[in-house]
Specification:
With about 375 residues, the protein is of the alpha/beta class. It has helices at about 15-20, 35-45, 55-65, 110-120, 135-140, 140-160, 195-215, 240-250, 270-285, 300-310, 340-345, 355-370, and strands at about 45-50, 70-75, 100-105, 125-130, 170-175, 220-225, 230, 255-260, 265, 270, 290, 300, 320. Strands 3-2-1-4-5-6-11 form a seven-stranded parallel β-sheet, with helices on both faces. Helix 7 links the parallel strand 5 and strand 6 (about 220-225). Helix 4 (about 110-120) packs parallel to helix 6 and helix 8 (about 240-250) packs parallel to helix 10. The structure holds NADP nicotinamide-adenine-dinucleotide phosphate and ligand F7E. Ligand F7E binds near residues 175, 238, 259, 325 and 331.
Length: about 375
C-alpha cells in the first residue's frame, strides 16, 4: 500500500468538535432526512474504540474494522502539526452521512477524558494501542514511558469499570517483556525479564490486564506481539530507517546510513496481518493471552542484506556503526512460538521476511519519487 493522501484540510479554525462528532445517534445534521435512518443503521453496527489510532497498528486496525462494518472511534492527541497522516485515506468528514470513523481529541495520560469518552462512545470493543513505543527513547524518558506505556492501561480499565462498560479489552503487550530471554522460543508461559523502561512498563500493563480479568471478570486479553513492520512503521525503528535509507541512497539523495547493534535478532512480521490477530482475540468466548509471531528470527544485518540486495546494492558500502544508537541494555534474541494463536484463533503469518523487506523498500522508493526533497537524517 502506498503513502496515504495528504490530510483533508479541515480549515484554519479546527476545533475538538470537528473531530469529536458526538454519539453516533446524534450524527447527521438537522434537516437531513437520512439522519434517522443512518442512526438506526449505526445502532446495529459494532462499535470499537482504538487508542493509538494514528500509529502504525492503529491505522491498519481501523482499516480492518471499517471493512468489517464496525463504527470506529479513535483517540488522537492534539499536536502542533497534523498527526493523522496514516488515516487520511480512510477519514471522511463527520458531516458526511456514512462516516463510520470518528476521531476524538484526548490523551491516555488523562483519566477524566478517558471516562468521558468511554461514557459517550459506549464501545463494544476497546483496543488499547497507545504508548510511547520506542525502546531506545524509553531510556531517555523512563518516567514518562512508565506513565503512558504502563499506567495508561489501568486508567482505561478503571474508566471502563467506572462507566460500567461491558466492553471487551485488548492490551498491546510486547515481546520486549521477554528481554533477556529465559527460554527459546518464547511462548505465553515464558517468564518475563524486561531490559528497558519500555519493557518494564509493558510488564506492568500485561499483569494489570490479567489482574482485572481475574478480579472483575472482564473480557480482557493480552496480545504478546513480536516486532511487526510495514511501510507505515515509524521512521526511527530499525527496519524503516533502513528501507528509507535504501530508497534515498538509490535515488542519490544520501550515501551513508548510521546504525547501532547489527547483531540483534528479531522475529519480524507484517503489521497488516498482526492486527487481524488482535480482532480475533476479542471474538473468542473467553479472554486469554496469545503470542503473535512468525517463528523465524533474523539479525539486523540480515535485514540490511535483504533490503539493500533488493535494489542491487551492498550494505557494506553504505552502513557505518555509530555507538549513539546502542542501548544501555540490549535484547539480543527474540523468536516467538505462536502455536496457541494458530490453534485457537486460526491465525498465521502470510508474508515472509524477504517479502516484508522488499515491500517496505518498494514503498519507500515510491515515496521518495513522490517527494524527493524529504528530510533524510534520522534521530
Ligand atoms: P506507534 O506507531 O508508535 O503508535 C503509537 C500510538 O500511540 C500513536 O498513535 C501515538 O500518537 C499514540 N500515543 C502515544 N502517546 C499517547 C498519549 N499520551 N495519548 C494518546 N495517544 C498516544 O506504535 P505501533 O507500532 O503502532 O504499536 C502499537 C502498540 O503496540 C504500542 O502500544 C506498542 O508499544 C505495541 N507493540 C508494538 C509492536 C511493534 O512491533 N510495532 C510490538 C509489540 C507491541 P501520535 O501519533 O500522536 O504519536
Ligand atoms: O530495534 C537494533 C536495536 O527500534 C530493533 C517496538 O515496536 O518492537 C520494537 O522495539 C533492533 C534493536 O525495535 C538501530 O538495538 C540497530 O536490537 O526497530 P527497533 P525494538 O527495540 O525491537 C517491540 C516488539 C516493541 O514492542 C516496540 O514498541 O535493532 N538497532 N541499529 C537499531 N534500532 C534502531 N531503532 N535504530 C538504529 O539505528
Amino acid at each position: 500500500m502506498g503513502e496515504p493522501e495528504p490530510n483533508p484540510d479541515p480549515g484554519p479554525d479546527l476545533t475538538p468538535a470537528d473531530f469529536t462528532a458526538g454519539c453516533p445517534a446524534e450524527s447527521g445534521s438537522e434537516g437531513d432526512s437520512s439522519a434517522p435512518r443512518l442512526a438506526a443503521k449505526l445502532q446495529h453496527l459494532k462499535r470499537a474504540l482504538i487508542t493509538g489510532i494514528t500509529g502504525q497498528d492503529g491505522s491498519y486496525l481501523a482499516e480492518f474494522l471499517l471493512a468489517k462494518d464496525y463504527e470506529v472511534h479513535g483517540i488522537i492527541r492534539r499536536a502542533s502539526t497534523f498527526n493523522t497522516g496514516r488515516l487520511d485515506h480512510i477519514y471522511k468528514d463527520p458531516h458526511v452521512h456514512d462516516a463510520r470513523l470518528r476521531l476524538h481529541y484526548g490523551d491516555i495520560a488523562d483519566s477524566s477524558c478517558l471516562v468521558k469518552l468511554l461514557y459517550q462512545i459506549q464501545p463494544d470493543e476497546v483496543y488499547h494501542l497507545g504508548a510511547q513505543s520506542h525502546v531506545r527513547v524509553s531510556f531517555d524518558i523512563p518516567e514518562y514511558t512508565g506513565d503512558v506505556t504502563g499506567l495508561a492501561t489501568v486508567r482505561i480499565l478503571e474508566a471502563m469499570r467506572e462507566t460500567k462498560l461491558n466492553a471487551r479489552f485488548y492490551q498491546a503487550s510486547s515481546s520486549e517483556m521477554y528481554g533477556k530471554v529465559q527460554e527459546v522460543p518464547q511462548t505465553e508461559k515464558t517468564p518475563f525479564y524486561p531490559r528497558s523502561p519500555y519493557g518494564a512498563a509493558k510488564v506492568y500493563a500485561y499483569w494489570i490486564t490479567v489482574n482485572y480479568r481475574e478480579s472483575y471478570g472482564m473480557h480482557a486479553s493480552n496480545g504478546i506481539l513480536f516486532n511487526h513492520e510495514s511501510p507505515r512503521r515509524g521512521e526511527t525503528f530499525v527496519t524503516r530507517k533502513i528501507t528509507r535509507a535504501v530508497a534515498r541512497i538509490k535515488a542519490g539523495l544520501q550515501h551513508k546510513l548510521f546504525l547501532g547493534n547489527l547483531d540483534a535478532k528479531r522475529d519480524w512480521g507484517y503489521a497488516k496481518e498482526y492486527v487481524e490477530a488482535m480482532w480475533l482475540m476479542l471474538q473468542q468466548d473467553n479472554p486469554d493471552d496469545y503470542v503473535v509471531a512468525t517463528g523465524e528470527t533474523h539479525s539486523v544485518r540480515e535485514f540490511l542484506e535483504a533490503a539493500f540486495g533488493h535494489v542491487g546494492l551492498d550494505y557494506r558500502d553504505h552502513v557505518e556503526v555509530d555507538e549513539r544508537y546502542f542501548r544501555p541494555a540490549e535484547v539480543d534474541l527474540l523468536i516467538g512460538d505462536a502455536s496457541k494463536a494458530r490453534t485457537r484463533l486460526g491465525w498465521k503469518p502470510r508474508t515472509t521476511f524477504a517479502e516484508l523487506a522488499r515491500l517496505m523498500v518498494d514503498a519507500d522508493i515510491e515515496a521518495v519519487a513522490a517527494k524527493p526533497g524529504d528530510r533524510g537524517d534520522q534521530p
